[in-house]
Design a protein that fits this description.
This protein is 41% helix and 25% strand. The chain is built from five helices and five strands. Strands 3-2-1-4-5 form a five-stranded antiparallel sheet, sandwiched between helices. Helix 1 runs antiparallel to helix 2 and helix 1 runs antiparallel to helix 3.
């Protein structure tokens, strides 16, 4: 299957939108952003954590005037954009996306997975997210 021209750009733009959402939520105080998306046919999950003043903080711990519920809802709803992009460009839709953004260098990297680990490994996306948060705290 050949990918239609422009997919990489549109997919990168979506990732940038997630970074922007996270930076806005953290009111640009975040040194690093860690955004997590998980989706299957029946499940949608979005969450994020941040490095602020050298400390790793869950979204609920960030001092912000933004609504955490609204932040999570926007992130979760935007997963449909990912699905639309993949349909439009006739490519497989990832099940998992981990985005790391460094505000100082303004660079990000993303880990994309097409595996539905929730069935095979019997773990929830929340457990995977919490493991990632814990790993970053221990660094």
């Amino acid at each position: 299957m050949t990918m239609k021209q422009g997919y990489e750009d549109v997919f990168s733009e979506l990732q940038s939108d997630y970074i922007s959402l996270c930076l806005e939520y953290a009111e640009n105080k975040a040194e690093e952003v860690f955004a997590y998306l998980y989706r299957t046919e029946t499940m949608r999950m979005f969450n994020a954590f941040f490095r602020v003043d050298g400390r790793i903080l869950a979204a609920s711990q960030v001092d912000t005037s933004c609504s955490e519920d609204e932040f999570m809802e926007v992130g979760r709803d935007d997963i449909s954009k990912l699905e639309e992009i993949c349909r439009e460009y006739d490519t497989a839709t990832p099940n998992e996306l981990k985005i790391h953004y460094d505000a100082k260098t303004r660079k990000y990297d993303a880990l994309v997975s097409y595996e539905d680990y929730s069935v095979k490994d019997k773990v929830t996306p929340f457990q995977v997210f919490m493991k990632w948060l814990k790993e970053e705290k221990e660094k």
